[in-house]
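Student:
Attend to each token:
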Amino acid sequence: MTPPVTRTWSRRGTTPIVRVRGRSRRRLSVAALVCYKPGQRSRLIYRPCPDARPDGRKSFAWTDYRDLIQAAHHQLGGPIVLVWDNLNTHVTGGMRRYIAERDWLTVYQLPTYAPQLNPVEGIWSVLRRTTQANRAFTDPHDLITAIRQGLRRLQYRHDILDGCLIGTRLVPTPP
């Protein structure tokens, strides 16, 4: 809920001030996949997860990631090569069993502490600098709405998605 601070314009000698009333420990977890297929446009598939869940969990469980991968497989209509980081939820026993049971799913783990190889980190950076920058959210619903709108806008910005993918050097640079 605390807004990230970025650059802004104002009159010379006048510092712009964004007042934030109270600090909230509320948060929003978002899982995303940046998808690449030669000859087609890049795609962004995401799922938000607010911290107010019925089971009391404040982040994604391996079953949430499983559902996201299943939805991506359904939307993309083909086999998936998944490259992701070493988040503890990604390497649980349930997730490993799920991956082993799917012949259409191949998974490569990124090295530890390698955010420069993860294109989704670029998406989060763009989101912080655009949608969230210098904005004080009034309540958790306002935060969720803003993040969804920002991600929805990014879904149609294939140039930004391509830039995040090319920046990792995991996909070939277009001619």
